[in-house]
Automatic annotation (TrEMBL):
<dbReference type="InterPro" id="IPR041726">
    <property type="entry name" value="ACAD10_11_N"/>
</dbReference>
<dbReference type="InterPro" id="IPR002575">
    <property type="entry name" value="Aminoglycoside_PTrfase"/>
</dbReference>
<dbReference type="InterPro" id="IPR011009">
    <property type="entry name" value="Kinase-like_dom_sf"/>
</dbReference>
<dbReference type="Pfam" id="PF01636">
    <property type="entry name" value="APH"/>
</dbReference>
<feature type="domain" description="Aminoglycoside phosphotransferase">
    <location>
        <begin position="28"/>
        <end position="249"/>
    </location>
</feature>
<dbReference type="InterPro" id="IPR052898">
    <property type="entry name" value="ACAD10-like"/>
</dbReference>
<protein>
    <submittedName>
        <fullName>Predicted kinase, aminoglycoside phosphotransferase (APT) family</fullName>
    </submittedName>
</protein>
<keyword id="KW-0808">Transferase</keyword>
<keyword id="KW-0418">Kinase</keyword>
<dbReference type="GO" id="GO:0016301">
    <property type="term" value="F:kinase activity"/>
</dbReference>
Length: 340
């Protein structure tokens, strides 16, 4: 047993289906993130990554490592960079929860969109690669990669708002008036279904990407737990949502930052670059998509807070810190609604 992972049990299950796990294995648990516990397994044959569901009682459809595995396996060989997927174990008797194994990608991770260690041209190139990768996700041929049934049909936003309202109610620890006001506004202002239906990542932001060790290209898109088929503007708005948060270790945003001086694009420039890549004339009513993203993230962080209180979070102290941001996300959502 190492860092809450029974490596011997994993190796016994893998047997000879994946080289190296029968020999000496060094385990490192990644402490970032609050969702599915993730481990790097260094073996004589190479390094792998194992992601498993957390322990405890989980909300229905949450922490879907099976879906993470399926979508990344389907994307192998497409224009969307993902790690090489190897094995999925759905037998909870092996280590107490489903898990999967994939290659470890040796790339750079950035958790601060200000990119403090980069030059202005490097910053511009990194964010442009982030933009190009998002467009590539939304341009995936669902039929060709076998993902045409990866999510339900129908009105994506009506479905998502209904889902996250239920999730939020199930994990609420106190009443947050701004969240209630935001829910009311979203339910009253959901636009009609415009027929756009693509693969959506569901949590697209710079810290869920890996970049080349010696370059600015995205080499892996990670954390596909919230992926589904839906409306692409939700992913685009998620990027803008993150940037509107305060800068620093907790907010990880760009609010108040002189972007031009740093070589970073404005919100409008990022949206325009995305639209050009996808052949769009522009996006009307972007305030709704932004308000939706603030609400969804607030609901997610409320779930993180509840798991932390119950002792099921990967990092309980960080879970409490993130949970404290729920009212801020709700208010930001209401602010975005006024831009509608």
């Amino acid at each position: 047993m190492a860092d809450d992972l029974n490596v011997t049990a994993v190796a016994d299950w893998v047997d000879d289906r994946l080289p190296g796990l029968g020999g000496d294995v060094t385990v490192h648990r990644f402490v970032v993130g609050q969702s599915n516990p993730t481990f790097r397994l260094d073996t004589p044959a190479g390094s792998y990554v194992l992601r498993r569901k957390p322990g405890g009682v989980l909300l229905k459809s949450a922490h879907a490592v099976e879906r993470e595995f399926a979508v990344q396996k389907a994307l192998q060989g497409t224009g969307v960079p993902v790690p090489q997927m190897h094995l999925l174990c759905e037998d909870v008797s092996v280590i107490g929860a489903p898990f999967y194994l994939m290659d470890h990608v040796d790339g750079r991770s950035f958790d601060d969109p200000r990119l403090p260690d980069q030059t202005p041209p490097q910053r511009a190139a990194i964010i442009d690669s982030m933009n190009a990768t998002l467009a590539a996700i939304h341009d995936v041929d669902l039929q060709a990669v076998g993902l045409s049934d990866y999510g339900p049909g129908g009105d994506y936003y009506a479905r998502q708002i209904g889902r996250w309202v239920k999730q939020y109610r199930a994990t609420a620890t106190e009443e947050i008036p701004a969240m209630e006001d935001l829910i009311t506004w979203l339910e009253a202002n959901t636009p009609g279904d415009d027929g756009r239906r693509t693969l959506v990542h569901g949590d697209y932001r710079i810290d869920n990407l890996l970049f080349a060790k010696d370059g600015t290209d995205v080499v892996a898109v990670l954390d596909w737990e919230l992926s589904t088929l839906g409306h692409p503007f939700a992913d685009l708005a998620a990027v803008i949502m993150q940037w509107r948060m305060p800068p620093g270790a907790d907010g990880r945003g760009l609010a108040g930052v002189n972007r031009a001086a740093l070589g970073l694009p404005s919100d409008a420039d990022f949206i325009a670059a995305y639209c050009k890549r996808r052949g769009l004339d522009g996006i009307n009513g972007f305030g709704f998509y932004l308000a939706f993203c603030f609400f969804r993230m607030g609901a997610i962080l409320q779930g993180v807070k509840k798991r932390g209180m119950e002792g099921n979070a990967s990092n309980p102290e960080k879970a409490a810190k993130l949970g404290a941001y729920v009212p801020l996300f709700a208010q930001q959502g209401l602010n975005a609604a006024q831009d509608e």
